[in-house]
Amino acid sequence: MDFIGFLWILVWSGMFSSPSSVQFPVSLMQPVAFFQGTRALYPVLAAYLCLIWIFFSQKRLMPPLKTPLGAIFYYCLVGMTASMFLSPSKYTALYWGAVYVSPILVMWISLNHANAMAYLRKLIYLNYIIAIGIVISLLPEAFRMDISTPPFGRTYDLPFNLGGIRVNGAGRFALVAIIVSFVRLISQKEKKRYLWLPLILSSLFLIIQTQSRTALLGLSVAGILFIYLKGLDRRLLFVGPTVAFVIWLSGYKWRAQGQIEKLLYLSGREYTWKKGIELFKESPIFGSGFHADRLLLDSQHMHNSYFHSMVQSGTLGMIFFVGAIVGIWALIFRSKLLKKVRYVEGSDQTLLIESILILGFLTTRSFFESTAAFYGVDLLLFVPAMTYIYLWIRKNSTAQQSSEHLEK
Fold it and tell me: Dihedral of CA 6/1/175/340: which sign?
């Protein structure tokens, strides 16, 4: 494994952990206990190693503001400043700011390599391996449960005592697995592509069982985007009704019990959003620092990326955060990537389609969960997909401009 891959594993290692789980001293003679007792610090270590690499390589410290990655970095910078001066628990807030910046810095040093595209592909593949691995690890427990039992309060246990995943989190991993496996089932030509079918069916089972509305919404968004990207295909005649049945059964019949108003119920999010607005009024410019919702709203979670960015980094930080999401989609539409992707050859087409579908799912999810606004799984899925799309568009638009110049 190369240095950047190692850094990305460090970033992931802190997932489903917190500073409260750090235990010292921990004996090196007990590797599992040592890992569990220190892994919350691994993303901080990754950020530190990135800064050392940037210093000795004499590269620019931060991505340009005009790029989506740069906009997210500046959002983090505002949040870190607020954490230092305005948070009621400075060290806790700075910890969450440090782990948040770690994947951004890994992306940044990847972009500074001559073979940046190859490094980004590796990081995306690592994400796929982790997401699919987690889905597979959850299946034995999922198959033992009643598929139609209401999911409220349910968690799935990760192996090796790595923690638990709520139903929304499990649905998210399942949808990523479906996107990756389905795109490869359709795109690949060899007979071995049918090996993706068991993963697709198992992941659909998990989504049905979780009854996660954000995963079901993401499934419909990803399906519509896929048809737009690839065009109509006779093989999709069976897929549309299947997706519609999954959404009807899991979302409408079981989760909403046949009542539309229950399907649209915000589960109390609107009350938390109102509290978030009141908290925002106390520090409207810079916010109250990372982890502000948990620290100042009785451990409540904002469940909305934009409200989350607002309470953490105020108006200034929220502008940068929204700018990153709007910026990458503006770049996609301006470059006409949604049409061009049909004519891309090789593995780039597959990765571009997967990245666009994941980006579409996470952007939709951002209205009901705090996607990419704090250190979490969504951030680690969002940033590589966004960066890969950005770099591919930039490189290919440059190549196209050079070709047009030579023709003239």
Answer: positive
